Amino acid sequence: MNGQADGSARGDRPVVLVRTLDPAATLPAYARDGDAGADLACIEERTLAPGERALVRTGIAVAIPDGWVGLVHPRSGLAAKHGITIVNAPGTVDAGYRGEILVNLLNTDPRESFTITPGDRIAQLVLQEVARAHFTAADSLPESSRGETGHGSTGGFGTSAT
Questions:
Q1: Is 93 known to sit in a ligand binding site?
Q2: Is pTM beyond 0.90 here?
């Protein structure tokens, strides 16, 4: 077995143990040096009609080390060329999850169906260190320059900033 069994970091990189659940599964892999996301490939053929979504199998389970999270992001090429994205992007793979990574793909193209085949790269897995907070109830919160303004308050969504 390569890597450290406890999933601790090797140098500056965490070790992620990967279990293949299907003979067609492939390990996540970085396409180029310096890439943030490792490609996730599917193990099944699936056609997504316009507007359709589906959980697509990768055939792998991972052991993300404690203190890290796996974030499943869309692939920009699929989104730009075919309108294929991920419904809950980014999807979260918690350190304690040991089940199969399923990718919730969505075809946003209004006219064309899209077919994926086994081995197609359908998403990217980005690892990120996480902090765990201690949440404490409070009767009031400290003042801030933003205050309670939210959704569209900085001029987005067709509103004008004043």
A1: yes
A2: no
